[in-house]
Write a structure and sequence with these properties.
single chain, alpha+beta, 4-stranded mixed β-sheet, globular
Length: 595
């Protein structure tokens, strides 16, 4: 069957022969999902048969699915952490993988407040590059002419550290951007960026953002798509333009680079890019000096066809703001990936955000699924379902086995089966397990929030005051977004109430208690604003309970929600706020991991 007859796209055929081969490969993989999965598992088990971890389970060289399922248990990060720490400390024996660990990828999820360390091997770079290579052929089926212009993508690296063994520990995208796969990628007319590598690879976030925005303005007519990894990152770029358009327009007018840009590689490359352009400078001033920024993306980059950003999961909260700044441009969510493994892609990338589904590519790893019941609880481990056997409409927790040595590892993502591509299921991302609050790459769970509130409330003891109830909200109406914590206080002496200064310090104490990903977003990335405490009047949480009961909640089972997103509840809380307080200082953060 011809490729063009099996893709439900608005265009008749692939853009070129290279695309046709990629699309046919997707068809072949999704037609043979279960066979590919069996082959992948056999390869992983054969490759890692002599590792310390697999030897525990007495597989005796077996590579079949049945033996694997009957003997190897599911694992959490905490189960594997002692082994991972040995590798990080320099143990070169085959602990999880028979192949040498090349680096550690730091997950946005945390354990004991620190980013999780995921050991990886060099082969995984090739697998990640394989998935990247499929994205553009699929997109070309839905958007024509992307080879006639450029993409304005705001891409950044983050701080990395070295483990005691000397191996780098860094986020997966930092690893990719620093790899030869990215730095020496061959020219592809469909993948030309406005941002030079020198800007993307600059660790200083201001210098990197400034240069990428400047180049995007210079190439504004050629820009056909605008993107960042997360929706929050693109909005942060728009806010950056609001704050820095005057200096940017000055640089464009004079052809000279701002003195704040000190990175020598950036300065050298910009000598070839930045030339005086008074007309463009006048245009930037005219557009950016206006009070109304609605549709600013299409006003400055008029040929933009779509936004390339993740707007699923926690990022869905940014959709209205993106629509405001872009005039409602389509939002393409192209890929589903994590530090542990790259999973799959969206085969209908121009669908509405509410319909985004990802088809897991069966050659990327071995995938199993733990059923989630209607109450959100996981079933017994014996009920793990294979990729080809999941059922439409049901929700599952993703469990993976990888070439790098993770075996039956619980990723923590909850997915819902939304359909099938041939025999390969398509999944909608539902949520991260146990996550309450998220603004950017941060993930704060209920236990972390409880601990932060407890640590901050210690400051109230001097005033004989306590926090009797609290809840929270991720406020994304501001850029950057920030955490809002609603406190109801019991003050036993009305003549000795906590001062504004004390409650501001409570905000800081909460931030100091947050995990390292949150603190990095606050300090290094500037992607989260100061934490806010809103003190509500006494009795507010009883009113919340009354409201819930009026809507059918059981008075015997009611618990105050630790996070609220329902508009009527937020309106009730905000109507009863008696004072607001913000963290006056940045929390402490260092790229070095606590030992």
């Amino acid at each position: 069957m011809a490729v063009n007859s099996i893709w439900n796209s608005p265009f008749a055929s692939p853009a070129n022969e290279k695309d046709a081969k990629a699309l046919q490969l997707i068809e072949d993989l999704t037609l043979n999902t279960d066979a590919v999965q069996r082959q992948v598992l056999a390869e992983i088990l054969a490759q890692n048969a002599d590792t310390e971890y697999l030897r525990r389970f007495n597989l005796h060289g077996a590579v079949d699915r049945e033996t694997f399922k009957s003997r190897v248990p599911m694992a959490s990060y905490e189960d594997l952490q002692p082994l991972i720490q040995r590798i990080a400390n320099g143990d070169r024996s085959p602990i999880l993988s028979s192949k040498p660990v090349s680096e550690f990828l730091t997950s946005s999820g945390t354990s004991a407040g620190e980013r999780k360390l995921m050991p990886t091997i060099k082969d995984e770079l090739d697998r990640r590059q394989f998935l990247y290579s499929l994205l553009q052929p699929v997109m070309n089926l839905y958007v024509k002419g992307l080879d006639k212009g450029k993409g304005l993508y705001f891409l950044f690296i983050k701080s990395e550290t070295r483990t005691p063994s000397g191996l780098p520990a860094r986020p997966v995208l930092t690893s990719y951007y620093k790899s030869d796969h990215f730095k020496t990628r061959p020219y592809d007319a469909f993948n030309v960026y406005t941002s030079p590598n020198e800007a993307i690879l600059c660790l200083d976030s201001f210098q990197s953002m400034y240069t990428q925005m400047l180049c995007g303005l210079i190439d504004r007519v050629q820009v056909l798509r605008v993107g960042a990894v997360f929706a929050s990152g693109l909005l942060r770029a728009i806010r950056f333009l609001q704050l820095n358009w005057q200096q940017l327009s000055h640089d464009i007018r004079t052809g000279t680079l701002c003195s704040q840009i000190k990175d020598s590689a950036i300065r050298e490359c910009m000598t070839r890019i930045l030339l005086p352009d008074p007309d463009l400078a006048d245009f930037v001033v005219r557009e950016c000096s206006a009070d109304n920024w609605e549709g600013i993306i299409t006003r400055i980059w008029p040929n933009t066809k779509y936004l390339d950003v993740i707007v699923t999961g926690a990022m869905a909260q940014y959709i209205p703001t993106l629509d405001y700044y872009s005039g409602g441009l389509p939002k393409a969510c192209t890929m589903y990936a994590s530090s542990e493994c790259y999973f799959g892609l969206n085969l209908n990338p121009m669908c509405s955000p509410s319909e985004v589904s990802y088809t897991i590519m069966p050659n990327m790893g071995y995938f199993e699924f733990l059923p989630i019941d209607t109450m959100g609880n996981s079933h017994a481990p014996a009920s793990l379902i294979d990729l080809a056997d999941v059922e439409l409409g049901k929700e599952y927790e993703l469990v993976i086995t990888t070439y790098s040595g993770l075996c039956r590892y619980k990723v923590g993502d909850i997915l819902r089966v939304s359909g099938f591509r041939n025999s390969a299921p398509c999944f909608q991302f539902v949520r991260r397990k146990n996550v309450l609050l998220s603004i950017d790459s941060d993930k704060t769970d209920e236990a972390e929030l409880q601990s932060a509130v407890a640590n901050a409330s210690v400051l109230l003891k001097k005033w004989n005051a306590t926090v009797v109830e609290y809840t929270s909200y991720a406020d994304t109406k501001t850029i950057p977004g920030h955490y809002v914590i609603y406190w109801e206080l019991l003050v036993k002496d009305s003549s000795n109430v906590p001062s504004n200064d004390v409650l501001n310090k409570c905000c800081s104490a909460m931030e100091e208690s947050m995990n390292s990903v949150y603190r990095q977003c606050r300090v290094a990335d500037g992607s989260i604003g100061p934490l806010e405490i809103r003190v509500v009047r006494p009795g507010t949480f009883e009113e919340l309970m009354d409201y819930a009961i009026s809507r059918g909640a059981s008075i015997n089972q009611y618990k105050a929600p630790r996070c609220v997103t329902f508009a009527p509840l937020l309106e009730l809380l905000d109507a009863r706020v008696v004072s607001t307080h913000f963290s006056p200082t940045l929390p402490k953060w260092s790229p070095e991991r606590r030992v």
